């Protein structure tokens, strides 16, 4: 079928494939842009926003509104980047095994973050182990010289360290995490307070986000 579009248009056999290839082509022309990609069963959007807020202080940053994390939303976000962009912060979701691998084929992450493996969409995946298999595709795409950021408190996420060629940096509340929170409390409004401990030193942190669940997202 045909319909008038009221202006110039490009006709392609597969819109999804064309959109992805267009985004990949643009990103290939932006070698100065560092790509951050976040996945997990919960907390992707808020963590993506936290990362974007931080790195925007170091240079022009593009990140998606809301949860633009699929084969349409991700390339649309990439296509907002230009020659001035220094940081591209992306969210990657999955409805099945291979979905994140497809997204990393469009935007290969220099930094890949996996927050957790929960039971969201377990009916589609069949098990948490299959969810972990899908989420881990993000760190498989991290190249040598890149960084995989993994939740040390989630065994299924921590096990992904063997699936990446990049440097592994862990976060969490436990003593084995490279970046961790200690002395954690909630204030009278339920906002997290903790001491951030890193190899470079420690510092007090007071979040504006409500709930203890925001602490590991902030660590990532």
What does the model show?
- The chain has 220 residues and is an alpha/beta fold.
- The chain has 2 domains: 15-171, Mur-like, catalytic domain (UDP-N-acetylmuramoyl-L-alanine:D-glutamate ligase, 3-Layer(aba) Sandwich); 173-219.
- The chain has 9 helices and 9 strands.
- It has a 9-stranded mixed sheet with strand order 2-3-1-4-5-6-7-8-9.
- It is globular.
- The termini are far apart.
- The total tally of domains equals 2
- Total helices: the number is 9
Instruction: Tell me the CATH superfamily of the largest domain.
Output: Mur-like, catalytic domain
- Sheet of most strands: 9 strands, mixed
| Secondary-structure arrangement, i.e. CATH architecture of the largest domain | 3-Layer(aba) Sandwich
GO molecular function: acid-amino acid ligase activity; ATP binding
Domain Mur ligase central: 38-220
InterPro entries: Mur-like_cat_sf, Mur_ligase_cen, MurCDEF_CellWall_CoF430Synth
Keywords: ATP-binding, Ligase, Nucleotide-binding
Give the structure's gist in a few sentences.
By secondary structure, the chain is an alpha/beta fold. Helices cover 30% and strands 25% of the residues.
Topology:
Blueprint: H1 15-28, E1 34-39, H2 44-55, E2 61-62, H3 73-78, E3 87-91, H4 99-106, E4 111-114, H5 122-125, H6 128-135, H7 137-140, E5 147-151, H8 155-158, E6 167-172, E7 179-186, E8 191-198, E9 201-210, H9 214-219
Parallel strand pairs: 1-3, 1-4, 2-3, 4-5, 5-6, 6-7
Antiparallel strand pairs: 7-8, 8-9
